[in-house]
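sanity check this record:
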Amino acid sequence: MKLRQEWHAFARGARSLDAQTTCVLVLCAILVVIQVKLGSRRFFLLEVAPAAWSEHRELLSWGWWFLIQCITGFLVPVLVLCAVFRRSARQAGLGRGDWRLAGTIVLLYLPLVTVGTWVLSDGASFQAAYPHFRQAIQSWRLFAFYHVMFLLYWVGWEYLWRGFVLFGTARVFGLYAILIQAIPFALLHLNKPMPELLLSVAGGIVLGAVVWRCRAFWVAVPIHALQMLILDLWCVLRIRTGTEGIGLGVLRQLLTG
């Protein structure tokens, strides 16, 4: 009798859940697991890439990671919200939104991120971590190709959190959805240098708030992509020239050396 009562209480609780919000939160966890396991560079190098591709395997492994992130973070979530739950592009965060405000924010952020990454790039931990694709240090052609491919990653990464989770749970959580999407976003930075890890907490909240206000996830893509591009650029220039320090004289030396 007691077990039957518990079962009925469980069933009533399950029926009271919002289907979309429940699906988004559960599927988000599954998609991250898929990305980590099947989208890893290690999986590509061991299970996917044939030996004949040995010359390009390193670069292709990054492309594999970026592609799987785009599929699991963008394509699948968009299909779920738009095809399964019949949400409009605007409701799914895919609309144009307040593009004037979004463009202004990107332009205002650019000088801030340029200065901020210049300071961070002076640290040994950042030069050891960036760029992730180490062959890009020696070749500007590979550097450019790597960052073009990286755009796939940013579309998937940003939509998963600032699109799928943010707009997918907003009907139940309202503004609290901004904080909810920022939690896993910060946790996935645990292997980053400490300054970046700490900044990811505030950054996830601020970026979520910006997307919420603009009503479109895409504003987060150039913000994050430019941040990584400029950080990688500073790190490559410092590694190539052995330049240390953050003063204007050091910057002139780095750019003209």
Summary: The mean pLDDT is 90. The radius of gyration is 21 Å. Residues 140-173 form the longest helix (34 residues).
